[in-house]
């Protein structure tokens, strides 16, 4: 017989269920990505030009920007849990509007509503996951959000590929209706899971917070060493925070916080400027532009492989992000993506560019390229695939992990809301501009994003400290250090004690232990034994 209490307090199950919100986002992106390459879509919506298509695509991102920007207040006021439930209900409404669209205005309205929902969930999910996770596997649990996004894109793309054979408007209405399914599942299931213990503590509901911590980290025992340590740290930080400031947006610009807000916002902007979302969103058109595939179906299949790779290559990030560390993973990923984009752009310069004037083709009247031979065509596909793999294992998950773990509790929801809104603003900006940029810049567009990736590698090296293995409460100390130097855990423990006036010397629980059922985690007591643990 299933032990539902044990199941709904397992940190992997909690994080995995919350991540269904990522599938919602992926579904919305994937279904539209496949749709814009079909004849049924172009016929019904009267062959939207680059400007109009950019507006349709950008409607989702515009909604996401507003949703993310406004999500901090409900997440703090009503809890992370109830905010997710409300956002998923909103997504159902948007999906139904899209599937019933009788023209571009109704389609855009549905996409804006879906965007509001996705903007909220994309902020709240990693926030909720980070607050219920043990520090040793926090990166892994938050990275599940990105994996869910890739699954949503993957499933939606192949559903769209199958639906493309439907005659008439069902070819795009069916995928837009199906995307409501994960929202229904999330909305119904989240009621069974606990509220964030840190949110409960911040609201003065410490008894409830202790019970949740005992259930998720102590196998139901409130006297478990890990639970006692976490409660002590949380109480001390809440007391310290309340002495420093209140829960106001102006707190984001105070010393000690403003720089972290800047880093979080920059990281989310950089994630968009990798070029990954643009390549995934326009992958069908990209391959059509490069003359890859001799039919709509073969082009869709060639494009679909990139979605498969995106799913598969996110798995190593989930498994090893807490071993590799944040800094080296981000730097390596940016350099790898930059290299592959330089190569793709260089290969496309070898072709003959022309405006395709065949009205039977979906990219009628747009730039296309005739590459010199099959080998060059295959090389373009290969390096696009390598680019996708590089993103999936690095910036994809860490773009959500890092901002969710670096802020103090009193401003965490507001700060993550701001950084996520920045992500969606640039997502909207790029999705609106890129169709026109593809026509004007052609191969130079890939050089532009390659340069962005190089710049972000430099920025991470100079400014971003390693956060692997530290509790959320220790981040204030971590960000006092030089980001380019190793951080001594014993120093962090001593500074915690000095700053908070709390007994943090025993803040590490002996030995990392994970049970298959509970995912219980302990940590090696290096600082107590006088042994220094360092992180790159």
UniProtKB/TrEMBL annotation:
Its main location: membrane. Keywords: Membrane, Transmembrane, Transmembrane helix, Transport. It is found in: Membrane. PANTHER family: MAJOR FACILITATOR SUPERFAMILY (MFS) PROFILE DOMAIN-CONTAINING PROTEIN, PLASTIDIC GLUCOSE TRANSPORTER 4. Gene3D superfamilies: MFS general substrate transporter like domains (1.20.1250.20). The chain crosses the membrane at residues 12-30, 50-70, 141-159, 174-193, 257-287, 299-321, 328-348, 379-402, 414-437, 443-462. Residues 507-536 are annotated as: Disordered. Residues 14-468 form the Major facilitator superfamily (MFS) profile domain. GO terms for molecular function: carbohydrate:proton symporter activity. The keyword Transmembrane helix applies. InterPro entries: MFS_dom (IPR020846), MFS_sugar_transport-like (IPR005828), MFS_Sugar_Transporters (IPR050360), MFS_trans_sf (IPR036259), Sugar/inositol_transpt (IPR003663), Sugar_transporter_CS (IPR005829). It comes from Absidia repens. It is a multi-pass membrane protein. Signal peptide: none annotated. Belongs to the major facilitator superfamily. Sugar transporter (TC 2.A.1.1) family. One of its GO terms (cellular component) is membrane. NCBIfam families: SP. The lineage of its organism: Eukaryota, Fungi, Fungi incertae sedis, Mucoromycota, Mucoromycotina. It holds the Pfam family Sugar_tr. This is General substrate transporter. It comes from the Eukaryota.
């Amino acid at each position: 017989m299933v032990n539902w209490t044990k199941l709904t307090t397992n940190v992997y199950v909690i994080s995995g269920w919350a991540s269904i919100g990522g599938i919602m986002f992926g579904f919305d992106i994937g279904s539209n990505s496949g749709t814009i390459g079909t004849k049924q879509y172009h016929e019904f919506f009267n062959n939207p030009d680059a400007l109009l298509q950019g507006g349709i695509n950008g409607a989702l991102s515009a909604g996401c920007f507003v949703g993310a920007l406004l999500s901090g207040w409900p997440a703090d006021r009503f809890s992370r849990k109830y905010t997710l439930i409300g956002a998923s209900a909103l997504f159902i409404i948007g999906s139904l509007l899209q599937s019933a669209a009788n023209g571009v205005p109704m389609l855009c309205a549905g996409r804006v509503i879906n965007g509001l929902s996705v903007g909220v969930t994309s902020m709240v999910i990693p926030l909720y996951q980070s607050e219920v996770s043990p520090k040793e596997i926090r990166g892994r649990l938050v990275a599940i959000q990105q994996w869910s996004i890739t699954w949503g894109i993957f499933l939606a793309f192949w559903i769209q590929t199958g639906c493309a054979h439907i005659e008439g408007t069902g070819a795009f209405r069916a995928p837009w209706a199906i995307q409501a399914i994960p929202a229904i599942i999330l909305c119904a299931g989240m009621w069974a899971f606990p509220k964030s213990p840190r949110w409960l503590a911040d609201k003065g509901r410490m008894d409830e917070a202790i019970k949740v911590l005992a259930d998720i980290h102590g196998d139901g025992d409130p006297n478990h060493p890990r639970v006692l340590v976490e409660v002590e740290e949380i109480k001390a930080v809440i007391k310290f925070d309340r002495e420093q400031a209140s829960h106001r947006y102006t707190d984001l610009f105070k010393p000690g916080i403003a720089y972290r807000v800047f880093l979080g916002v920059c990281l989310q902007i950089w994630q968009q400027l990798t070029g990954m979302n643009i390549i995934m969103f326009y992958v069908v058109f990209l391959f059509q532009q490069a003359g890859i595939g001799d039919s709509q179906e073969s082009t869709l299949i060639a494009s679909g492989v990139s979605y498969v790779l995106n799913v598969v290559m996110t798995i190593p990030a989930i498994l090893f992000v807490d071993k590799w560390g944040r800094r080296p993973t981000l730097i390596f990923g940016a350099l790898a993506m930059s290299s592959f984009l330089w190569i793709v752009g260089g290969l496309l310069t070898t072709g003959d560019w022309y405006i395709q004037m065949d009205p039977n083709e979906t990219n009628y009247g747009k730039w296309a390229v005739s590459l010199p031979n099959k080998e060059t065509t295959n090389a373009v596909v290969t390096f696009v695939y390598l680019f996708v793999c590089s993103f999936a294992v690095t910036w994809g998950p860490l773009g959500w992990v890092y901002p969710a773990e670096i802020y103090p509790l009193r401003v965490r929801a507001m700060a993550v809301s701001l950084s996520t809104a920045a992500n969606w603003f640039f997502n909207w900006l790029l999705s609106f501009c890129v169709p026109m940029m593809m026509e004007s810049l052609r191969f130079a567009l890939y050089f532009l994003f390659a340069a962005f990736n190089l710049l972000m590698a430099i920025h991470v090296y100079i400014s971003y400290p390693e956060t692997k293995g530290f509790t959320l409460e220790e981040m204030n100390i971590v960000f006092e250090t030089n980001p380019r130097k190793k951080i001594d855990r014993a120093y962090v423990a001593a500074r915690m004690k000095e700053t908070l006036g709390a007994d943090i010397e025993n803040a590490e629980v002996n030995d990392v232990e994970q049970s298959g059922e509970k995912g219980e985690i302990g940590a090696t007591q290096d600082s107590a034994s006088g042994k220094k643990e360092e992180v790159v």
